[in-house]
């Protein structure tokens, strides 16, 4: 194991790096959180005081990163005013499933809900949950996110909130019921039939399986992604990954030699 809690399983690897922060509180980074990979349970990294992590994973492999539930003291750093400490408990979140293909993946961020937001969203969406508080089935969340949050550092990413593209719709294969879209107040709103400027999209009750999520719009193209669902998992394919807006006609939405299926690695550099 290398410094920083990084394990490497084989000769050819790529690096996943990103940041863990609280959903609804982009000024609060999550330190001391364990980052793991579903397909390779021996791999682990721990976020530093700025919420950053770095993890080597096998090349030419499917990898589904996730953050384990945990608790601790984190520092809230508002743009105005002095930083202050908060005691928080964050909840386990999976990311999309990436297919590695010779390139490091940057900005692999975890938008991680603390308890209040986690429980409020479950109640609002009527998500059946077990005694442990986890969904009995699975949840898929993503954001139809604008191209201007790709290839930028975290401060710029934060400043460019909201991250969404309005007027997009999303579907799943295999088919799922229509998703619920988030309104401009970042609240799921069943009356909406397309994304708001927030860009949020959620399927609150999903059976076990592997799903391809495709997002479309009359004015923009978006990357598709893979969500690997199992009981208890909340898959949040959050910005700048997931359903991100493509730069132009030269960037294929799914697959191709420069952009491996499921991860779309081009032009998403480091957030530091």
SSE map:
Blueprint: E1 13-22, E2 25-29, E3 34-37, E4 44-46, E5 52-58, E6 62-63, E7 65-67, E8 70-76, E9 84-90, E10 93-94, E11 98-99, E12 110-112, H1 115-125, E13 138-143, H2 154-159, E14 169-173, E15 180-182, E16 188-189, E17 200-206, E18 209-216, E19 225-229, E20 234-237
Parallel strand pairs: 1-12, 13-20
Antiparallel strand pairs: 1-2, 1-5, 3-4, 3-7, 6-11, 7-10, 8-9, 13-17, 14-18, 15-16, 15-17, 18-19
Report on the structure:
6% of the residues lie in helices and 35% in strands. It has 272 residues and is mainly beta. It has one domain: Carboxypeptidase-like, regulatory domain (Immunoglobulin-like, Sandwich). A five-stranded mixed sheet has the order 16-15-17-13-20, covered by helices on one side. Strands 1, 2, 5 and 12 form a four-stranded mixed sheet that branches. Strands 4-3-7-10 form a four-stranded antiparallel sheet, with no helix packed on it. Strand 3 and strand 4 form a beta hairpin. The longest helix has 11 residues. The N terminus and C terminus are likely disordered.
**Helix and strand pattern:** EEEEEEEEEEEEHEHEEEEEEE
Q: How would you name the oligomeric state of the polypeptide chains in this document?
A: single chain
Principal-axes shape call: globular
Number of helices: 2
Outline the biggest β-sheet.
5 strands, mixed
N-end to C-end Cα span: 23 Å
- What class, by secondary structure content? mainly beta
Radius of gyration: 17 Å
**Number of DSSP strands?**
20
Number of domains: 1
Mean pLDDT reading: 89
Task: Give the spatial strand order of the biggest sheet.
Answer: 16-15-17-13-20
CATH fold name, please?
A: Immunoglobulin-like
Top CATH class = Mainly Beta
Q: Return residue spans where pLDDT drops below 50 for at least 5 consecutive residues.
A: 1-10, 253-272
CATH superfamily: Carboxypeptidase-like, regulatory domain
Based on the coordinates given, report the CATH architecture. Answer: Sandwich
Portion of residues within helices: under 10%
Beta-sheet strand percentage? 25-35%
